[in-house]
Q: What sequence folds into this?
């Protein structure tokens, strides 16, 4: 069975939600293909990064069934993905071009169910050492409710290009 | 532009990797549609759950570019998703049917880059209180290298059916 | 050997530092005895609590050799004690009189060596649920350098009097 | 008022508990003076270190009112002190003589009230990198109940002698 045939079989049986989520994913692959997104993951979750200030990094993702857990709220792991990406972005933003940072440790407090139109995370560097960067991140929904709060330790490494 | 037209445009330009990753995602949507998977997320990541013992819950996901970060290793957030799902599974497995558990707090140590054929997480309940369950999870790759270690606090709530 | 004899033997051989630290401890026991301090620990560490605002709780302790680790900087566990006490204070301050809160989980980032004249911790409630309170605490030295940052989960219980 | 006079005034009014706790502290200062203990803190808490195996470090402290919180159970910060000391000991035990390790991050789950005759902590290295060591520690009471579980990140530095 070719991928085109699989898609046709899926779409023939798809509920409206399944069709919408699938189209979101297709759009994400196209965004990745067209280099508007760096990874498949950021593509399919429709992540939008911004830098509200030179010390703050931010990413926003729409809340759709694609990132739901079985209770139909945002999967804690997807909130973690958003926090980790945003906090990593803040760490990198604070570094010169020849360095990057990888997550060494991440602690997350989940405070409210991830419901609403979108999740938006803001991250700032709390402490910048030679080797370790401590970053804080807060994830809000569109009603500005604090959904989750994280702190993490990032380890600085040379960027291999 | 219909979703079918978008897909055709994408596939016409797709690299072999893009085709493979896209087919993985299509297979995931079909698995979700056919109720072999509970969520889109577990579908597209091809998560396979198992219960190696009555005290252990396990989930395995193949490592493919779908879950890569920009450095082409597993995104820390996807490792978090795997850990959170597996640890939540262990928490629920320890509860009677009318109760469930939501993640209250999650702490993750990332120890090695997520590379290899698959990630496999094993989680066990460390302490079971009336309201709070403490769970430990370890994520290994196919070479049995410890990629990440997590502990988390889960909050027990009634299951609304 | 009576305690008085032990003390005499100790003081006969004591270095100036040992004498100073010992006197600090004696003062702490007296403060506890006179109910100026609630615990031996707060007494001997000369902890001073304050409430800078209705949402903030603060405790300050002088940095003396009593709380040093073998490297002659503040023992990370004593910074943890300060953070835990202050964060617990903030949690309790947010609760009605018939409830109290116990630490369920505490995550600390140590950022700078604990050196200076004193450590001062400020804690605020980040999220207040029915059963769980999330609190943030920051420990600074007298030069306002951030020594450590913590977040914690506190579990609400009835206060048994 | 000399320290001797202060001590006399304190002892004249002291309850049996206050006398016992005070004598514990005096014994601790003597142990420190006689170099049986490395720090005041380990002295007054009567910490006893051991190495049950080459991969495990252990410290035991008696539970006395000295380390109680206002609820008359072990202060969470003192459990943290025990965990941090033991985990740091395990990290150092894994290093060559010219290196040492400082706590970078510590996450603790408090599971049961700290009651009993003593607390005993066992710590093992989970992962040993060039710069970062991840350590796990478990604190039990004399009934082998798990009181608290911690994981931490230690940063390797040269030992200045």
A:
């Amino acid at each position: 069975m070719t991928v085109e045939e699989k898609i046709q079989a899926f779409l023939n049986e798809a509920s409206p939600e399944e069709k919408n989520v699938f189209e979101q994913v297709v759009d994400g692959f196209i965004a990745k293909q067209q280099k508007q997104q760096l990874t498949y993951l950021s593509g399919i979750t429709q992540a939008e990064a911004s830098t509200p200030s030179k010390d703050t990094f931010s990413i926003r993702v729409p809340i759709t069934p694609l990132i739901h857990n079985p209770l139909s709220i945002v999967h804690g792991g997807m909130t973690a993905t958003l926090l980790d990406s945003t906090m990593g972005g803040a760490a990198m933003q604070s570094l010169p071009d020849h360095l990057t940072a990888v997550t060494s440790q991440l602690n997350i407090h989940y405070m409210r169910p991830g419901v609403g139109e979108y999740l938006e995370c803001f991250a700032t560097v709390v402490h910048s050492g030679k080797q370790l960067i401590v970053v804080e991140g807060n994830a809000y929904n569109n009603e500005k409710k604090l959904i989750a709060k994280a702190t993490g330790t990032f380890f600085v490494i040379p960027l291999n290009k």
